[in-house]
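Help!! Second protein's tokens look totally different from the first
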Amino acid sequence: MTTSEAPVGEGTITQRLLASACQRSGQRALAGGADGVVYSYGDLAATVQAAAAGLAWRGLQHGDVVGVYVADAVSYMLATHAIRAAGGVPAPVSPCLATAEIAWQLADCGARMMVTGPPYTAASLAAADRSRVRQVISFGEAAGTIPFGALLGMGSLRPAGEIAHDLALLSYARQGDGTLGPVPVTHVELAGELRRLGGETGITERDVVLAAPPAGDGRAYTAFIDNALVRGATVVAARTDELAEAADAHHGTAVIVPLGVDIGAPEPLRVFAVA
């Protein structure tokens, strides 16, 4: 049985990802994103564990919810897994929300921290002012925020162990009456979703998966990218209008896009649409 065919083991998705990263240390994990940095699986594991230590040093405790409002898959994965590794719960913020709705979501879930980055920094700060968020962490320099890089000098924290029915993700979806409502996802539910996607997508460590910016309420988006990383693929972040070009440049084999988006990709590129 090859590494990419191995069944997903016990533990949280973050624990599984970082454990498998040791076996793939030199292999590309993430590329693109706001700063264009390429992360090997070894780099990914080291960055996540260092950022988790920084979050814990800044007061993040087990079960705390942290808003995540970023514009690329690399930032999204680093933030999500660092929060989980520190014992927190990432709460994706949909790019479709107005500032007042973002503030309501942050207040409703009790978030005291938020991770953001360009071009969402100003909206994140405005929403934080109208909620209980006291620390806004940003990929990139911005007045009123803590640079993500500032989290990385506080040592390293091994990913927290969780009870299966603890939350792995707290997304918010539009309800039938038009209002937002929480849709919690437990670790056991996320693990089940990855088992399903493993069989349906056929993603392996030989794949290069292009990823559009975060879309929808984050549930499907998170599961698709977590599935790709757990199985050893390379995830390349790109803007929606650059996906076809990025697929050609990086020899992409699959792409994750918002539902209804047609990137005009060549036929061999497998397309996975998220709502």
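Here's the second one for comparison:
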Amino acid sequence: MASPRYGWVEIDPGAIARNVRTLKALTPPGTAFMAVVKADGYGHGAVEAARASLGAGASWLGVATVDEALEIREAGLTGPLLILAEPPAEAVDLLVRHDITATVTTREFASALSRSAVRAGRQVPYHLKVDTGMNRIGVRVADVPDTVIWLRDLPGVVLDGVMTHFATADVPGDWEFARQVERFADVIAALRTERIRPRLAHAANSAATILHPETHHDMVRCGIAMYGLHPGGATYGRIDLAPAMSVKGRVSLVKRVGLGEGVSYGLTWQAPAPTTVATVPIGYADGVHRVLSNRMPVLIGGHRCRQIGRVCMDQLMVEVPDGLDVRLGDEVVLVGQQGEERIIMDELAGLADTINYEIACGFALRLERRFVGS
């Protein structure tokens, strides 16, 4: 059991389930849905997010690493599970033993997977990652036909899926996105020419699932949107998503500072008049970006209050507006709703010049996670 602390994250699995159902409703009947639960479910808890997603109709889970995949298996979840990037060849026996589907991008890894499958007397599925223009991982488009023909001769392994990933699906009208869509269609056509028909072709991330139905193919892969966060500005107004994470704390100290007195490291904020300051024991080690110092709002008593001074590793300070009665133990909301006021992840991301993905993942660093009903 976690030690009592004046800082925690609340996760609503019901919101995750609702978002999955909302996203699935955008896809044609029979289209599979992969719930991406990598990075500990984007900070929401991988196992809990997986269970909520599967209960709402997801049929696949996606993770980034072997350790993440093993966590899912150790939790007793036995359905289809894909590692979205090719893992180290040293892990092939674990993959075969635990029915974890690997992404393949190199012949060296494919050979190791084949040898492990043969030793186990198994036919092991894999998905081939195609690089259609993101230039991160994957087999280049021109090399796909020869690669697949070579892979076809490997014993013990079978091509179950072919996949790609879009770099700019969240940018309406983007020419590079259109090129990636076209290249992936060419790959599928080239495979059919060789009479190779993988069971699943998949390309759509959250943004493409919402904005580009032509990319849905046999399966969509949703991560950020299933947690109630928009993948980009273009998806606002297109879909109603319910944020699943709130970040809360409690006031640990209330004090008065005099005119001209500074607050926190470097004394970057000085009181323009006698001011009440509240301390909240949450800092950058908990995911509050230090760059938000003197810029971010928090909610206390249903009011927006300004964070002041530099955010510390374990603490941040808040200016209490005149007339607001704040006391030790009062609830503070960093992300979420309090009364009629609300702070969303995108607001903090904009202030920090980053994306909501990074903000959400950061709050999972050491804050206690509490699962709530809705």
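Reply: Different proteins will give different token patterns, so don't panic. The mean pLDDT is 96.
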